[in-house]
């Protein structure tokens, strides 16, 4: 049984807190080896008995989503922690424990935190902290992929800014970690609507690339310039992030029920839009449209040909600039955002 729509209703994974002393992957803004043995972590190997008890023996009623790794279950550990447990059966990830140990060293406020794992001969499980507000899509559109208007522009740009910082951190590691499966359903929200990127480090990129060019079930988030898994680069993640930005601004799913033609997704619509205002989510206020257009222009750069796409660091900077520009419309945030700085190096 497929549970695609569950992903819009609740959370797959968990929040993470930054290291109290150093952001892993950087020291004094200099790059370091992300997987250095000098860093410690709290990721622990759990028993299958505890995971079965946590999920009531992987009960169907505990399923809260389905992602690239497999079904996701909500669980309660013996120490009282509420967690999200991803379970992969039979088709197992090679070098699973090695990847777990590598991912466990990555810490950032906008990346979900891996807290445990389990592996045997036929299954692999990843345990994350649980995020109560689910993924961003559940706050943007309904089951048909059409706008529901729960988020104002400030919240949308704050979410985009947080997610961009998470992906940028992955790219800053040595060696860089390419997400390869970035999408709206993998941007999760904690109780304060802080965005955290999930599903990094364990994606099956080969399956995704094999789907490029198929006439049905086209993955709108996948870089159309890809042909082989080994061709994934940071700019492939940038393309996916651009599609995410388009969803944030138009409020629609990348390919929704109103689109009869498989080629008619929001990337196609945005690139062929004569009037950008008509692309913007109708639930946003009139005063918010200028900021929305700025985000849309950034998104169009992201989904341009590879050579013209900005880096994630540039995207982070641009979103921060847009946030400062729209701050006067949201007086409750003025003290947080600081002085307004207008303009952007991307559009000069």
In terms of topology, how is this protein built?
Blueprint: E1 26-27, E2 30-31, E3 44-45, H1 48-54, E4 63-66, E5 71-76, E6 82-89, H2 96-104, E7 114-119, E8 123-129, H3 137-140, H4 153-172, E9 187-189, E10 195-197, H5 205-210, H6 234-250, H7 266-271, H8 276-279, H9 289-302, H10 312-326, H11 334-337
Parallel strand pairs: 3-7
Antiparallel strand pairs: 1-2, 4-5, 5-6, 6-8, 7-8, 9-10
Helix pairs in contact: 4-6, 4-10, 6-9, 9-10
Computed Rg: 20 Å
Main sheet characteristics: 6 strands, mixed
**CATH architecture classification name of the largest domain:** Orthogonal Bundle
Low-confidence stretches: 1-40, 209-216, 337-342
CATH class of the largest domain: Mainly Alpha
What is the first-to-last residue Cα distance? Answer: 50 Å
- Report the CATH topology name of the largest domain: Transferase(Phosphotransferase), domain 1
Major sheet: arrangement of strands: 3-7-8-6-5-4
**Helix-strand topology string:** EEEHEEEHEEHHEEHHHHHHH
Number of strands: 10
**Helix-strand makeup class:** alpha+beta
Give the proportion of residues in helices: 25-40%
Overall tally of domains: 2
What would the principal axes of the Cα set say about the shape? globular
Portion of residues in beta strands equals: 5-15%
């Amino acid at each position: 049984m497929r549970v695609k729509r569950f992903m819009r209703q609740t959370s797959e994974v968990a929040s993470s807190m930054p290291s109290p002393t150093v952001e892993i992957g950087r020291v004094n803004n200099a790059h370091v080896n992300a997987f250095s043995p000098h860093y410690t972590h709290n990721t622990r190997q759990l028993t299958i008995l505890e995971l079965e008890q946590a999920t009531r023996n992987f009960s169907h009623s505990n399923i809260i989503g389905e992602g690239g790794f497999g079904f996701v279950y909500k669980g309660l550990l013996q120490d009282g922690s509420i967690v999200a447990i991803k379970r992969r059966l039979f088709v197992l990830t090679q070098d699973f424990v090695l990847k777990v140990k590598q991912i466990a060293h990555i810490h950032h406020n906008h990346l979900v935190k891996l807290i445990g794992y389990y592996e045997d001969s036929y299954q692999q499980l990843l345990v994350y902290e649980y995020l109560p507000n689910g993924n961003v899509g559940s706050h943007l559109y309904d089951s048909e992929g059409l706008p529901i208007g729960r988020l104002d522009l400030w919240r949308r740009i704050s979410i985009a800014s947080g997610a961009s910082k998470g992906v940028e951190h992955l790219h800053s590691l040595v060696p860089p970690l390419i997400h390869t499966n970035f999408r709206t359903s993998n941007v999760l929200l904690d109780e304060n609507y802080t965005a955290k990127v999930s599903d990094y480090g364990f994606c099956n990129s080969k399956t995704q690339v094999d789907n490029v060019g198929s006439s049905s079930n086209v993955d709108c988030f996948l870089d159309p310039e890809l042909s082989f898994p080994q061709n994934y680069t940071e700019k492939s993640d940038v393309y996916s992030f651009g599609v995410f930005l388009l969803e944030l601004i138009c409020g629609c799913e990348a390919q929704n029920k109103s689109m009869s033609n498989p080629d008619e997704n929001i990337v196609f619509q945005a690139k062929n839009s004569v009037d950008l205002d008509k692309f913007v989510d109708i639930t946003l206020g009139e005063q918010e449209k200028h900021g929305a257009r700025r985000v849309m222009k950034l998104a169009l750069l992201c989904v341009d040909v590879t050579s013209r796409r900005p880096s994630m660091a540039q995207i982070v900077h641009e979103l921060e600039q847009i946030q400062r520009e729209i701050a006067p419309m949201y007086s409750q945030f003025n003290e947080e955002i600081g002085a307004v700085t207008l303009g952007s190096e991307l559009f000069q």
